[in-house]
Design a protein that fits this description.
It is built from 13 helices and 17 strands. It has 403 residues and is α/β, with parallel strands linked by helices. It binds pyridoxal-5'-phosphate. Pyridoxal-5'-phosphate binds next to α5.
């Protein structure tokens, strides 16, 4: 008899567009653990790419989804549901004063934020946005144009006009790129896909001052680094630099699809009735999940845990990696951690998967760790043990291959 894995893989290969190449079939998750179709347990240090920040099947989120699913799932934005405005209030309570637009993904959140910036800029004849080299903002056409890695755009020309990129963490380059057409600057406070690269706090402060001086909007993409990932609810709070607008997605509903962007109160009336919309945005079911996420952040010491475990992991990782010359260093903030190598991180990620540790890669040569923010010291130690074993194994392999 064919196994569930074989049957699923066959269906996947036959009927699913081959834009991904998954190798493992997971059937259950709890906290920072996943189980595959053969019952094998994995330690999950990817969290669905920083989506399940409260871990898999968090009881409060699961309960909220179950209760809301039995009451009301969706009515469209032509009517109100009572959950979405409560969520917006909660998100703003922990932010600067402002308003929220809800969509379904990171790319959609960024698209909306780009439209917001162009709407304001066009009032004074300016509609160009400067973003950063090495950035990632999504796969829709405008977010691809904003993304600072040309490989993602290849084959999908012509590019949406109105975007240019400058080197990240380089204030002079930004100054030099501003023209009388520029309306906004867009950046990730910590670049995620690009290789876990935090902004220099001084640079971010200088960008804010430059935007104020030149009357430009400062837009942050917090899709990956927001919602607690670097130890504060919003990433900008870690830097003490307020953007005019910022986007969120991934972890906002701990696995249900939601994206959002928040703009300051003074810009609340920029996008009005009919100017922007999304059928599923802020639907009751997903809003209930997102509200439960916020409640868990309030009650369960998630942010403090993220900071503590993050610091511990980064310190211990640096110690463990020190003997290996193919490791260049460890960087990141909170539980957004990159182990920087002198070569592709993919083989190491493969070895760790064999050790039942799920990790990610980023950029050209970075091993990326994005565990749930709820991991314990014991979970961290278990991951460190697996990483130590994985590094040792890889080192032997590389020596044998003379690499
Ligand atoms: C910083 C950032 N922005 C935008 C996106 C796109 O999000 P989505 O895949 O939900 O459209 C991602 C996804 O990885 C991201 O990391």
């Amino acid at each position: 008899m064919e196994s569930l894995y074989d049957v699923t893989l066959e269906r996947y290969r036959k009927y699913v567009m081959p834009t991904y190449a998954p190798k493992i079939l997971f059937v259950r998750g709890q906290g920072c653990r996943l189980w595959d179709a053969d019952g094998l347990e994995y330690l999950d240090f990817a969290a669905g790419i920083s989506v399940c920040n409260l871990g898999h099947c968090h009881p409060g989120v699961t309960r909220a989804i179950q209760e809301q699913a039995a009451k009301l799932v969706h009515v469209s934005n032509l009517y109100m549901n009572e959950v979405m405005p409560r969520l917006a209030e909660k998100l703003i309570f922990n932010c600067f004063d402002g308003v929220v637009f809800f969509g379904n993904s990171g790319a959609e959140a960024n698209e909306g934020m780009i439209k917001f910036a162009r709407k304001i800029g066009n009032e004074t004849g300016r509609n160009e946005i400067i973003s950063m080299e090495n950035s990632f903002h999504g796969r829709t056409l405008a977010t691809l144009a904003a993304t600072g890695r040309a490989k993602y755009r290849k084959g999908f020309e012509p590019d949406v006009p109105g975007f240019k990129q400058v080197p990240f963490n380089d204030i002079e380059a930004l100054k030099g790129a501003i023209t009388d057409k520029t309306c906004a600057v867009l950046l990730e406070p910590v670049q995620g896909e690009g290789g876990i690269l935090p902004a220099d706090p001084e640079y971010l402060r200088a960008v804010r001052a430059l935007c104020d001086e030149k009357k430009l909007l400062l837009l942050f993409d917090e899709v990956q680094c927001g919602m607690g990932r670097i130890g504060t609810r919003y990433a900008w709070q870690s830097f003490g630099v307020e953007p005019d607008a910022f986007s969120l997605a991934k972890a906002i509903a701990n696995g249900l699809p939601m994206g959002a962007f928040i703009v300051k109160r003074k810009y609340a009336d920029t996008l009005t009735v009919g100017m922007h919309a999304s059928t599923f945005g802020g639907t009751a079911l997903v809003s209930a999940a997102a509200l439960a996420v916020q409640e868990a952040f309030d009650r369960e010491g998630v942010l403090q845990n993220c900071r503590t475990q993050g610091e511990y992991l980064r310190k211990r990782l640096a110690e463990i990696a020190a003997p290996y010359k193919f490791v260049r260093g460890v960087r990141g903030m909170g539980l957004m951690i990159g182990v920087v190598l002198d070569r592709s991180a993919a083989p190491l990620a493969g070895i760790l998967l064999k050790h039942q540790l799920v990790v990610l890669t980023a950029g050209e040569n970075v091993l990326r760790l994005l565990p749930p923010l709820t991991i314990t010291r014991k979970d961290a130690d278990e991951a460190l043990e697996k990483i130590a074993a994985g590094l040792a194994e890889w080192s032997v392999q590389l020596n044998e291959e003379g690499k």
